[in-house]
């Protein structure tokens, strides 16, 4: 996050600007886009049956001999020192194998913090783990107990006595603003961006809005609790983890414990929901260390409360959005600034202004984020970090301006569509947000919306409609690598350490690989979730799918080259170059002359080969720096607000997406809808209750932290433009996070349309509407 | 969880004998107590599971209904007599918890459930006079959106979490208990105590007594009744405010009214003051709101729950207006 980084990225962008288009990825759109067969089909999940019948083994379910179970003790003060630590009763409790504290923990350095300069760094916290008596936040792990059963471990952990010498903790958002830090960059973007004089333009604007929006802290609540099962073997370490970052977890554990990379093997074939929370945290380090000392396999499953205590979530934010417009509604000024919490020992900047930099054209702009230092469990990425809450502020403000101008909010947005990236000036290879709006509005029946708020009612219920834009950037990670094996029997296997958190990784990669190999999906398998496989990037930033598509594309290219070498002079394809053939119907076939073809089976048989294996890495994702590649959505919401109680009930929700090629409508719809449901939680019900008096989270349970219940979730419709992005592999841009973006604003805008009340503070609970 | 002995007696006599052990606690469906044991808030050395005792639901000759303490909440809500004669009770039960919890939870256990106060629930770090008498109350000045606005004391502002008990309070139910000294009947409205300076003493049930059943008097013919619950999500959330009400008009005047609130008091809150003000009134929204408001003249809300005064009045007014026959 340094100034140096800003200079490097800016220079790289400049240099790439000189490079001819044809040298960059996607210079010729992926030829497969026009001839897909399996891609785009509603294939069922290849692992669905294993999951619903219970045969899929998750990290907390792996059977192991001599397994012992861990329970954690979390600090109950936000800042201070352990003054007294009495483990006598715990040691003596039935079944106890080990009590681990800072006294007997091996000396370990903390992991490297997540950062853009080192993609294998995955630490969420740079604080030491059980290394000393210091307490830096409420919930920090201060002891772990191993016992023969989970119940025994839980009981013994309750017997560990810890007294603290408290120190003053920084817990108040408002007070911390005086000492806010201004990072030089936010991810790979320069933090403080200005163009022209936004303040003056605002003051002179024909129409203007200027408001502050707040969003609460939120916690991760994946169904599967964080879990790890660890087994030290002679000179190797086996770790079954629930993780979004298989390869990097193995590398990080190896580094921490002084092992060679190949001595650590991480398995994570299934993850029960990630959302950014299933990263690398203290509990994995504690489990590995405990297992090493106890010389026993260890299972550590965080309790639900433990997830709140020791795994961070989304930072709270306070955001100012100001927009100035001329008489026609064309933006003359756009300002998006604000605060979020990021302790110095955390790594995730909650990039809430990044979406605003790409959505609208404005003559004068200012974007700036500031970070507050609080003594809290380090915040982390949570589905569309930044954009989820940034779009709430921005898209509420757009709605406010439209209302003030008496203009339809979709029309106001249309008038401010940029033709190029508003900051960098890069072209949009594909952007059809206006179409997404038009299609969505028609499907939703937007014309039935009353322009005047409070105009529609049904008994005690006021009815309103709202819409908002969502957005999320395209990401393709460098270094994604796959191994591809083609067998003489006409089957193929793709293998990579990739992650499956429920989104259908293997399913869609098989669809893609089958089409690219000219095979049926039944003939292709995909292995993942094992760090011994060629490394995939972590599953984050909605980037895993495109990253793997790029790697598979590279592997198939290499496979073709190898096949042509093996073909020799007696093959019908002899003499053809790699770019003159394609793989189709289980054969290598000439593109110009389709009669020149040979089946894989005969080609391999003649070469005396049972199979052919290649390993390849995707080309460098330079397209990201040269083109403005973003996904978009238009979210529509219809809801009711009770005049009596202020209760909000969402009746209809529609998402119209513009995310490039959709690989599988079934799994994509599930991703979109899941994101939108999470958006309803952000809008209406979810809030981490952080007691600033002592820095403690008070609602660390699913009863008290309100994720939407089934009854809160209406019929959700999703649709998409499906227009391929010519610059990305297969034209796909990633869909894991965009679903949540825009939803909170669409809900808030619908609440305004129903009641005339503008709520700028999430969640929109009923007391704010009485 | 602390180690404990588990018994499952099949008779009242056997149960009373087991209750002579110190440190025992009675276990119904376990939907509340087991959670509290996991959190270290309850630490019984002996659990006496009373779900084998009577859970029968029987109509008596006088038209009243006797519900055995071991009856499951879902059984009560689904019982034909309850659905026909006490729709308010059925609705209250179905508004509570989740289907899975209602399938386990018992009527006796529902009467004895503990508050959801976040500070009561946090034995590791928070002070609570209910858990540790005299230790202080961290809910005051903390998160108290779900807390009481009436009936509180400087020692405790926790709200009673039950939905079912609110309906039972409006229905003039009676709690039947038995112990070594014999059996006795306690009006449900007098069963739970206000906190005053001893918030740890939550009910009139003595430590050697057991609830055997709840009796609901014969329904008042001609009265219309319902239950409405207001909460932060559509399902599986405790009440911010709930209202149980029954109403009967004669010549456009209120001739009979029962009104109870949940979510606003340390006990199921029978609104006697409001009932008195409502009798004889016309069922117009304005008159109803004014009468209901009398219940809250000395409400003492906290930082986060001042909205409940207004919310309670509005919700009750809407419910009574609806029962009175005109649109809200």
Number of strands of chain B: 12
| Strands in their spatial order, largest beta sheet of chain B | 4-5-8-6-7
Uncertain runs of chain B are: none
Order of helices and strands of chain B: EHEHEEEHHHHHHEEHEEEEEHHH
Number of helices of chain A: 19
User: Outline of chain B, from the CA principal axes?
Assistant: globular
> What's the number of extended β-strand segments of chain A?
31
The CA-CA distance between the termini of chain A, in Å, is 44 Å
Per DSSP, the total helix count of chain B is: 12
Average pLDDT of chain A: 96
Helix content of chain A: 25-40%
State the largest interface: A-B, 37 and 37 residues
The biggest beta sheet of chain B reads:
5 strands, antiparallel
Oligomerization status of the protein chains: heterodimer
Helix content class of chain B: 25-40%
Radius of gyration of chain B, in Å, reads: 19 Å
Ranges of chain A with pLDDT <50 over ≥5 residues?
A: none
Explain this structure.
The complex is a heterodimer of chains A (770) and B (328). With 770 residues, chain A is α+β, with helices and mostly antiparallel strands. Chain A is built from 19 helices and 31 strands. In chain A, helix 14 (505-517) packs parallel to helix 15. With 328 residues, chain B is of the alpha+beta class. Chain B is 27% helix and 20% strand. In chain B, the strands form three sheets. Chain B has a five-stranded antiparallel sheet with strand order 4-5-8-6-7. Chain B has a four-stranded antiparallel sheet with strand order 9-10-11-12, sandwiched between helices. Chain B has a three-stranded parallel sheet with strand order 1-3-2, with no helix packed on it. The chains are: A alpha+beta (770), B alpha+beta (328). The interface between A and B is large, with 37 and 37 residues.
């Amino acid at each position: 996050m340094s100034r140096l980084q800003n200079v490097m990225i800016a220079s790289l962008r400049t240099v790439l600007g000189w490079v001819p288009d044809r040298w960059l990825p996607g210079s010729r759109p992926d030829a497969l886009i026009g001839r897909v067969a399996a891609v785009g089909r509603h294939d069922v999940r290849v692992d669905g049956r294993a999951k619903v019948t219970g045969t899929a083994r998750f990290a907390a379910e792996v059977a192991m001999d001599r397994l012992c179970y861990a329970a954690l003790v979390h600090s109950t003060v936000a800042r201070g020192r352990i003054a007294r630590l009495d483990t006598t009763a715990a040691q003596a409790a039935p079944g106890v194998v080990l009590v681990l504290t800072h006294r007997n923990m091996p000396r370990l350095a903390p992991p490297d913090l997540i950062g853009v300069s080192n993609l294998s760094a995955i630490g969420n916290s740079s604080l030491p783990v059980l290394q000393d008596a210091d307490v830096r936040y409420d919930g920090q792990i201060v002891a772990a107990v191993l016992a023969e059963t989970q119940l025994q471990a839980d009981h013994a952990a309750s017997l560990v006595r810890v007294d603290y010498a408290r120190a003053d903790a920084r817990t108040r958002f408002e007070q911390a603003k005086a000492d806010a830090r201004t990072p030089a960059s936010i991810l790979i973007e320069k933090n403080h961006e200005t163009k022209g004089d936004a303040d003056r333009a605002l003051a002179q604007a024909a129409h203007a809005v200027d408001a502050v929006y707040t969003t609460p802290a939120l916690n991760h609540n994946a169904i599967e609790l964080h879990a790890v099962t660890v087994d030290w073997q002679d000179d190797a370490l086996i770790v079954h983890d629930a993780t979004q970052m298989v390869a990097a977890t193995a590398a990080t554990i190896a580094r921490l414990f002084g092992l060679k990379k190949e001595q650590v093997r991480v398995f994570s074939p299934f993850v029960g929901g990630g959302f950014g929370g299933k990263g690398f945290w203290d509990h994995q380090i504690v489990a590995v260390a405990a297992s090493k000392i106890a010389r026993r396999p260890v299972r550590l499953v965080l309790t639900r409360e433990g997830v709140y205590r020791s795994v961070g979530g989304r930072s709270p934010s306070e955001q100012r959005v100001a927009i100035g417009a001329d008489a026609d509604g064309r933006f003359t000024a756009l300002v998006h600034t604000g605060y979020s919490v990021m302790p110095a020992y955390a790594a995730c900047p909650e990039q809430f202004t990044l979406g605003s930099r790409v959505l609208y054209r404005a003559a004068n702009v200012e974007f700036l984020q500031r970070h507050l230092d609080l003594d809290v469990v380090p915040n982390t990425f949570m589905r569309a970090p930044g954009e989820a809450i940034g779009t709430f502020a921005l898209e509420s403000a757009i709605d406010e301006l439209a209302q003030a101008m008496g203009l339809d909010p979709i029309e106001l947005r249309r008038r401010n569509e940029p033709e190029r990236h508003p900051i960098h000036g890069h072209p949009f290879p594909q952007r059809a947000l206006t179409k997404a709006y038009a299609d969505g509005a028609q499907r939703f029946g937007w014309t039935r919306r009353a322009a005047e708020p409070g105009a529609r009612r049904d008994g005690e219920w006021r009815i309103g409609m709202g819409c908002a834009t969502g957005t999320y950037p395209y990401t393709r990670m460098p270094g994604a690598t796959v191994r591809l094996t083609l067998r003489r029997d006409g089957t193929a296997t793709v293998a990579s350490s990739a992650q499956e958190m429920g989104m259908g990784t293997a399913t869609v990669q098989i669809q893609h690989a089958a089409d690219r190999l000219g095979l049926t999906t039944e003939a292709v398998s995909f292995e993942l979730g094992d760090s011994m496989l060629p490394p995939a990037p972590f599953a984050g930033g909605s980037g895993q799918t495109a990253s793997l598509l790029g790697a598979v594309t590279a592997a198939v290219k290499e496979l073709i080259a190898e096949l042509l070498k093996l073909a020799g002079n007696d093959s019908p394809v002899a003499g053809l170059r790699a770019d003159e053939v394609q793989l189709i119907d289980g054969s290598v076939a000439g593109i110009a002359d389709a009669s020149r073809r040979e089946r894989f089976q005969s080609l391999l048989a003649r070469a005396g080969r049972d199979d052919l294996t290649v390993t390849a890495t995707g080309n460098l994702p330079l397209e990201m720096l040269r083109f403005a590649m973003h996904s978009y959505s238009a979210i529509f919401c219809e809801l009711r607000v009770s005049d009596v109680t202020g209760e909000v009930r969402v009746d209809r929700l529609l998402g119209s997406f513009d995310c490039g090629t959709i690989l599988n409508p079934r799994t994509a719809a599930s991703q979109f809808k899941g994101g939108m449901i999470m958006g309803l939680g952000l809008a209406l019900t979810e809030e981490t209750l952080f007691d600033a008096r002592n820095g403690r989270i008070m609602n660390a349970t699913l009863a008290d932290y309100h994720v939407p219940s089934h009854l809160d979730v209406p019929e959700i419709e999703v649709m998409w433009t499906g227009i391929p992005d010519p610059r990305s592999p297969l034209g796909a841009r990633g869909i894991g996070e965009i679903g949540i973006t825009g939803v909170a604003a669409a809900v808030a805008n619908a609440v305004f349309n129903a009641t005339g009340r503008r709520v700028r503070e999430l969640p929109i609970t009923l007391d704010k509407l009485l | 969880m602390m180690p404990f002995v588990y018994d499952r007696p099949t008779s009242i006599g056997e149960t009373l004998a087991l209750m002579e052990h110190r440190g025992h606690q009675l276990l119904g469906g376990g939907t509340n107590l087991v959670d509290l044991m996991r959190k270290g808030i309850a630490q019984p050395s002996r659990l006496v599971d009373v779900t084998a005792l009577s859970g029968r639901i029987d109509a008596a000759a006088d038209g009243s209904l006797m519900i055995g303490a071991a009856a499951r909440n879902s059984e009560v809500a689904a019982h034909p007599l309850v659905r026909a004669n006490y729709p308010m009770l059925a609705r209250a039960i179905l508004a509570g918890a989740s289907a899975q919890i209602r399938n386990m939870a018992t009527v006796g256990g529902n009467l004895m459930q503990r508050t959801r106060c976040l500070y009561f629930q946090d034995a590791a770090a928070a002070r609570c006079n209910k858990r540790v008498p005299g230790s202080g109350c961290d809910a005051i000045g903390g998160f108290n959106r779900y807390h009481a606005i009436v009936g509180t004391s400087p020692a405790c502002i926790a709200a009673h979490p039950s939905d079912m008990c609110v309906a039972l309070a409006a229905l003039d139910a009676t709690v039947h208990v038995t112990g070594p000294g014999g059996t006795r009947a306690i009006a449900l409205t007098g069963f739970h105590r206000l906190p005053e300076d001893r918030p740890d003493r939550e009910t009139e049930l003595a430590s050697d007594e057991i609830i055997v059943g709840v009796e609901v008097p014969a329904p008042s013919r001609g009265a219309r009744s319902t239950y409405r619950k207001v909460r932060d999500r559509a399902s599986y959330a405790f009440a911010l405010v709930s209202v149980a009400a029954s109403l009967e008009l004669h010549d456009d005047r209120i001739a009979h009214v029962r009104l109870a609130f949940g979510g606003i008091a340390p006990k199921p809150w029978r609104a006697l003051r409001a009932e008195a003000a409502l009798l004889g009134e016309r069922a117009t929204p304005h008159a109803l709101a004014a009468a209901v408001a009398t219940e809250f003249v000395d409400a003492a809300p906290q930082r986060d729950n001042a909205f409940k005064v207004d919310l309670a009045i509005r919700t009750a007014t809407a419910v009574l207006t609806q029962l009175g026959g005109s649109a809200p």
